[in-house]
Design brief:
This protein is an alpha+beta fold and 249 residues long. The protein has 3 domains: 51 residues, Arc Repressor Mutant, subunit A, CATH 1.10.10; 64 residues, no CATH class; 96 residues, no CATH class. It is 43% helix and 21% strand. It is built from 6 helices and 8 strands, in the order ααααααββββββββ.
Length: 249
């Protein structure tokens, strides 16, 4: 059975995430060249997914190699053994003194490497936790984007940033994406707001380009706003909104 265009429009997010069945994917691919809005939605959803996936990637600490090389440089070696030569009394005494020094140096190096290993283990655990949290955020955002009832609206803030909101009644969640968001002045950040019957309620923060969940219940909100506020946030907007756009109906 042929799908209506209105049904195909709702598949943009799932198509961008490769979450459609083969028949739906083929139908949407045929529809895409004839719909400017769907092409724009797919491009934005793909860009958002790429940014979220990149957030899970963490480079190794830059100081790790230097710490290792510094520890190696501090290890003293034993003198070479020469076969066939009987040790003299002085040499034997020197060796007796050298062995404790070498042992102490070895123990110090072992302690240094043990500390480095513990530090590396801790950093590795932290990176794994960060990667897990980033993956969980990506999965949660993907669930909203790919929801069958997801709807999107797009806007432009007065500072030039391109924005979009995708909402799902079934998920009872909404995500906000900003591209080209200028860096806020020191001590300030961007705060989101939900308009509930004329009352603006705090809905989270976005500190730079990317995608964030909108805090609060978007189901009975009519609009979303964006303002510049102190870094700790405000209970009510204190500046002129950079953006105020209706939520997807």
């Amino acid at each position: 059975m042929k799908q209506h265009d209105s049904d195909l429009h709702a598949l943009a997010a799932a198509f961008a995430l490769h979450a459609l069945a083969p028949a739906e994917s083929e139908a949407f691919r045929d529809h895409l060249p004839h719909c400017d809005e769907c092409r724009k939605d797919v491009a934005e959803f793909e860009a958002t997914a790429a940014r979220l996936a990149a957030a899970a990637s963490q480079p190794p600490p830059a100081a790790m190699k230097q710490r290792t090389m510094t520890a190696i440089d501090g290890v003293r070696q034993l003198p070479p053994r020469v076969r066939g030569t009987a040790p003299t009394r002085g040499l034997a005494g020197l060796r007796r003194r050298t062995v404790p020094l070498a042992l102490a140096a070895g123990l110090a190096a072992a302690a240094s490497f043990a500390g480095l290993a513990a530090w590396q283990h801790q950093k590795s655990a932290e990176l794994r936790q960060q990667a897990l949290q980033a993956q969980q955020r990506l999965d949660a955002v993907a669930a909203v984007l790919a929801a069958p009832d997801s709807r999107a609206v797009h806007g432009r803030a007065t500072n030039g940033a391109l924005t979009s909101v995708v909402a799902s009644d079934r998920q009872n969640k909404a995500v906000f994406t900003a591209t080209g968001l200028p860096t806020p002045a020191p001590g300030t950040t961007y705060q989101l707001w939900l308009n509930h019957a004329g009352t603006m309620r705090p809905a989270g923060f976005i500190h730079k380009d990317g995608t964030v969940f909108v805090d609060g219940d978007p189901s009975d909100a009519t609009a979303l706003g964006l303002t510049v506020e102190p870094a700790e946030g405000s209970p009510q907007p204190t500046t002129t909104p950079l953006l105020l756009m209706n939520l997807p109906a």
